């Protein structure tokens, strides 16, 4: 099972979670249907507990571990229940284990964290531009803060990278072979301290030492910077074409193909989002991304999101009809709309910024 695990450490072991009893009588058929639905929802976010630790595991491998609203609600309830438990003296999401597909919301709930363990099964990507959307769930924060312009490269191409590359770029802090994770879990569960330096040294001790191979993204960072540091998407494509003609490297041709397949509007919106994220805090990025997402879903400017979902996920013909169809048809006013304030009947996202940690 490929999964993304979020592990919290506590001073004392937590009691097992229990479901609240039903207080209403339901017909047998309705009760059975509800039980099946509840069971499915519970299985989408699994809970493991050993010693002084609890782990919430995203478990939708056939859907790339994509987060649903119900999964988000369950995660929120789990962490609130652990925090409010009188038997627990310390609760904080400390370690994210990226043991499988890590995309979209999976990246959002893990990469901004303090410690992230990548494995030999890790596959990371931000492919939203291919469904007429934009890299969200904090992607405009953590991608924009990577070295050079590799964040723009990942955001605009949706290129997949492995766990070793995540570690090399700083998206992961530690690395472990997937087969060793149970052993690491057992040792982390025995820690009874909230000192990040102790956890850091423990993860370094338990983890594996790995080096990028010849195909690693780290070997083309200089070329990526030359191309993706350009001001506009059009200029980035021109630079890539020059790079491809000069070097004839596969990654250039692959990147050009992905750029030309993506929604033109999404490309321009996403580039601006990453550029703005470079000068914003995590909460500022989340508030802006929320605003952008509602504008996208509203279809006020373009139906690209619905069309991308149809072409990629529903009918799967992989032939989206983007509107606007080309980059030259995307106006500045169209892009500006996605960054404009929400209407009076749609409140802006409010976050508990007073709880923000200093480094973000």
Describe this protein's structure.
The chain has a single domain (3-15, 33-355), classed as 2-enoyl-CoA Hydratase, Chain A, domain 1. It has a 6-stranded mixed sheet with strand order 2-3-1-4-6-9, with helices on both faces. A 3-stranded mixed sheet has the order 5-7-8. The protein has 360 residues and is an alpha/beta fold. Helix 5 runs antiparallel to helix 12 and helix 10 packs antiparallel against helix 11. It has helices at residues 28-44, 69-84, 105-108, 139-142, 150-157, 163-169, 181-189, 196-206, 221-228, 233-247, 250-261, 264-277, 282-298, 304-314, 332-338, and strands at residues 3-9, 45-50, 53-58, 92-99, 101-103, 115-118, 123-125, 161-162, 174-175. Belongs to the enoyl-CoA hydratase/isomerase family. Pfam families: ECH_2 (PF16113). One of its GO terms (molecular function) is 3-hydroxyisobutyryl-CoA hydrolase activity. It catalyses: 3-hydroxy-2-methylpropanoyl-CoA + H2O = 3-hydroxy-2-methylpropanoate + CoA + H(+).
